[in-house]
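Morning F.,

Quick status update on the modeling queue. The single chain you submitted on Monday has been processed. Sequence for confirmation:
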Amino acid sequence: MARSFKLEMLRKLLLETYGIRHQGKAAVIIRGCSSKPDQRDHQQKEEEFLTEDELKTSILDAALNFVPTHGWTVGAISEGAKEHSYPGVAHGLFPRGGGDLMHHFVRQCNRDLSGQLRSRTTKDPDQHTQQSTSQLSPSTMREALESRLRMIVPYMDHWPQAMALTARPANVQEHFVNLGKLIDDICYYSGDRSVDFSWYTRRLALLGVYKSCELHMVQDKSHDYQETWDFLDRRLGDFTAAGRVKQDIERLVNPDFFSAVYTVGRNILGVNDQRR
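Structure tokens below.
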């Protein structure tokens, strides 16, 4: 009840001060308004309509510029709101505080990487389609992992704080959803078309590779994180070796059973998207 009251008071403050009104889940933002009678027609042309999600996204985008000085905190979100001339208390729109900012950044990085991989596939479709269901492109996988890890470099000083936020109960589920989508994209664009038990083993193994490299990176003091890239190469070597063990396991199980488990698992994880 107290939280609902605070949010309602925030909405009223935004309405009175900045000409913002809420309609259900939509937020209507009116900027550049003038109350002079001779400017009413001009005023209507300057109305800008944003949904609530678009409003939040604009604040979080701006807040990322303040992470180097404020960390993954409500302070950074408040500064981001002020960049758009909203009151600092607009951070109340984000109940998880710095967690919402962290998830926003992770989703943004995952989308950017997915776009890069998709673009590479479009330019070289033959290499992508020639991969068999039992083989992945080592070069694509290596480049994808390094590219994704490099995206956190501008925020490295505060990245341990972001990693700690993922362990909070309110953030755990979305963290693993985002992580799962990242790993699934890397596997898919590296040539994985498996529909059996290997769908799980590859993603679980690659998830371990990514997270171990992330942990190594936050402690890496070498030039351009060279020790992390060397560590990545060694872990990918282990990943390849694990693939050979997987083939031995598959000989001992019923393929129809794991095909059914595979389908159910993909539905649960929400990765049965239309591109597949």
